[in-house]
Design brief:
The complex is a heterodimer of chains A (137) and B (180).
Chain A (H helix, E strand, L loop, with lengths): L4 H8 L14 E8 L4 E9 L6 E9 L2 H14 L4 H5 L3 H8 L6 H32 L1
Antiparallel strand pairs in A: 1-2, 2-3
Helix pairs in contact in A: 1-2, 2-5, 4-5
Chain B lengths: L7 H4 L10 H14 L10 H22 L1 H11 L14 H18 L5 H33 L2 H28 L1
Helix pairs in contact in B: 2-3, 4-7, 5-6, 5-7, 6-7
The chains are: A alpha+beta (137), B mainly alpha (180).
């Protein structure tokens, strides 16, 4: 099966590979995996507390070319979006952009799950922060 | 054999059940193998010869699938119309994913020449082996539960367990390959 040019581009030049401090209260971390293929994907966002905009996004994926490309593309799209805008990213957007074949659609699902998991983690942290502030008063 | 058995359990004349007595199954395999050995049908009609041959080949398949608890469980799930299921219906627990991620990081470090990663991989391998043992014990308990209740809920649990085990199995293989 041949990879599309866009997949190859992301695979050969992945954007935003790396990691951020998962204990930072403005960082949300999503860790997802697919047992059937052994892929595991970590995706992190850093949200600017003043603007609510995602300033930075990083990922590290162990998996096939499509999984790496899907998460690489996801981090590109996340930067500059608000958290709510980020939640609107659908796996089908990734499928279309990368021209993923049907057998690789699960890679895009994984990337969408990773985005949602990262945002959930961030929101939980913000909730925890708020309750800590309330207790302090 | 007036008609061919409908599934591998029927080949052995047993119900669709999971907690099988393996020595007994093996004994039955030898008995049936002997009984339907093509040599015993050398003077039978062509149709009977063919039936004996078909049954023997089905018997071999049945024995191969049923003697292994994992393939037996996967086979029964399929018979009951339950597909393996994807990660959405059976998401791996987060702490397992953390372990998987760390193992992959260590494997990458080892590949790039960092020999310190070996200890980390060895530690991970031992944890995964212990986890696999635990899953096998849980599996045997589910086998007994299913045979007693014949319920879909137990099959769901079993499917989830098999997915996790497959995941662990891949990790064990990767870690062992890296260390060999």
């Amino acid at each position: 099966m041949a990879y599309s040019d866009k997949v190859l581009d992301h695979y050969n030049h992945p954007r935003n590979v790396g990691s951020m401090d998962k204990n930072d209260s403005h960082v949300g971390t999503g860790m997802v995996g697919a047992p059937e293929c052994g892929d595991v994907m970590k995706l992190q966002i850093k949200v600017n507390p003043e603007t609510g905009i995602i300033d930075d996004a990083k990922f590290k994926t162990f998996g096939c070319g499509s999984a790496i490309a899907s998460s690489s593309l996801a981090t590109e799209w996340l930067k500059g979006k608000t958290v709510d805008e980020a939640l609107a990213i659908k796996n089908t957007d990734i499928v279309n952009e990368l021209a993923l074949p049907p057998v690789k659609i699960h890679c895009s699902v994984l990337a969408e799950d990773a985005i949602k998991a990262a945002i959930t983690d961030y929101k939980v942290k913000q909730g925890a922060d708020v309750s800590a502030l309330v207790q302090a008063h | 054999m007036s008609h061919s058995p409908s599934d591998y359990f029927a080949v052995f004349g047993i119900d669709r059940s999971l907690a099988l007595n393996l020595p007994e199954l093996q004994r039955q395999f030898y008995v049936l193998s002997k009984q339907f050995h093509p040599d015993r049908f050398a003077r039978a009609s062509a149709a009977e010869q063919q039936r004996a041959l078909d049954f023997t080949s089905q018997l071999n398949d049945a024995w191969r699938i049923l003697r292994d608890p994992i393939s037996r469980a996967e086979y029964l799930l399929k018979l009951q119309g339950m597909e393996p299921g994807d990660s959405r219906t059976n998401p791996p627990p987060p702490e397992l994913l953390e372990e998987v991620f760390d193992l992959n990081m260590a494997l990458e470090e080892l590949r790039s020449g960092d020999t310190h990663a070996r200890d980390q991989i060895l530690g991970a391998l031992n944890r995964f082996l212990a986890l696999r043992d635990q899953l096998d014990q849980d599996r045997d308990a589910l086998f007994v539960r299913y045979d007693a209740n014949r319920d879909a809920a137990t099959l769901q649990d079993l499917r989830g367990l098999l997915n996790r085990r497959r995941y662990i199995e891949n990790l064990v293989r990767d870690a062992q390959q890296a260390l060999s």
